[in-house]
Amino acid sequence: LSQDELKKIAAYKAVEFVESGMVLGLGTGSTAKHAIDRIGELLRQGKLANIVGIPTSTQTHQQASSLGIPLSDLDAHPVLDLAIDGADEVDPDMNLVKGRGGSLLREKMIEGCCKKFVVIVDESKLVDYVGGSGLAMPVEIVPFCWRFTAQKLQTMFEDSGCVAKLRVSAEDGEAYVTDNGNFIIDLYFKKDIGDLKAAGDAMLRLAGVVEHGMFIDMATTLIVAGEMGVRMGMK
Ligand code: DER
């Protein structure tokens, strides 16, 4: 099975939690895309009704509206029944790294208001510790003096061999700009940063930091699709 087929299997499994009348957080990324497609299909077939979607990015807003999913926002729905989203990394305690798709702020706002947050991944996302994949742990920052903030973040985690890089957009090599008009600094760690809560709080104390991509104690349900089938974990 390809990675995308595994993502689709996990996504379809998560949509089984969706009931008519629910207010749903709609995630961002290639895995969540399958879940949103499936929700649109069930609405079209009349197997689901009266769903309200709260999109976590303009990209998801466009996909969901093209599927005819009714959309709203947190101002109208401050409490959601269920959110379904992917992740870049999942550690053994179901802590997540998210944001490589650039939507971490709206994802964290929306997924923090859900009664149930179902994370859908293929098995390649499982790590021993956050940052363990050697890939980025994203931090959304204000553009003002971004070099200053990037240096503060790198120094903060120098014991973990941290390297901080400004995310640039593939097209023009300019700084990537989030839906919220901010920049992203990608942090790369060589070692486990240890106490995630303390690390996250330390980052948030930097005035230029808006939000970080560690989703600690937020996921309630994890669906992992692998070659051996689909596994589900609950918190
Ligand atoms: O950017 C994000 O937070 C995405 O949800 C990401 O974590 C997962 O993206 P993928 O499903 O395309 O791997």
TrEMBL record:
**Catalyses which reaction(s):** aldehydo-D-ribose 5-phosphate = D-ribulose 5-phosphate
A GO BP term here is: pentose-phosphate shunt, non-oxidative branch
Q: Which GO terms describe its molecular function?
A: ribose-5-phosphate isomerase activity; RNA binding
Q: What is its EC number?
A: 5.3.1.6
Pathway entry: Carbohydrate degradation; pentose phosphate pathway; D-ribose 5-phosphate from D-ribulose 5-phosphate (non-oxidative stage): step 1/1
Going by the UniProt record, its keywords in alphabetical order are: Isomerase, RNA-binding
What family does this chain come from, according to its entry? Belongs to the ribose 5-phosphate isomerase family.
Record's protein name: ribose-5-phosphate isomerase
